[in-house]
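Data deposition worksheet. Section B asks for the primary sequence of the deposited chain exactly as it was used as input, without tags or linkers unless they were present during the calculation. Section C holds the resulting structure in token form. Section D is free text for depositor observations; keep each observation to a single sentence. Incomplete worksheets are returned to the depositor.
Section A, Depositor: J.P.
Section B:
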Amino acid sequence: MDDADRKQLQAFVKHWLRQAGRTPADLGHALGLPSAPLPMLLNELARTNAKLGPSGLVERLCLINERWQCPGDFDPDPDVLGDQLDLLLEAIQGEPV
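Section C:
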């Protein structure tokens, strides 16, 4: 992930957290990190991207988002998750899928 991709991911994460009413600490907890400064979050997301590719990163973020929306009863709907993956991948890549 180059600097431009990282900046785009950072802008996306900030916007997403704001829209979701969540904090970096919430995301850090969801990612299983011991602390949640933004650089650490971005490093973890960049590792996910390197390991699983953009679709794996998007899937991970969508699962976190779904878990936040249904905290006690998390059972992801494959159809909803697929739609979220497409939209999130489009947002991260900055182009239509």
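Section D:
The chain has a mean pLDDT of 82.
Residues 61 and 86 are 12 Å apart (CA to CA).
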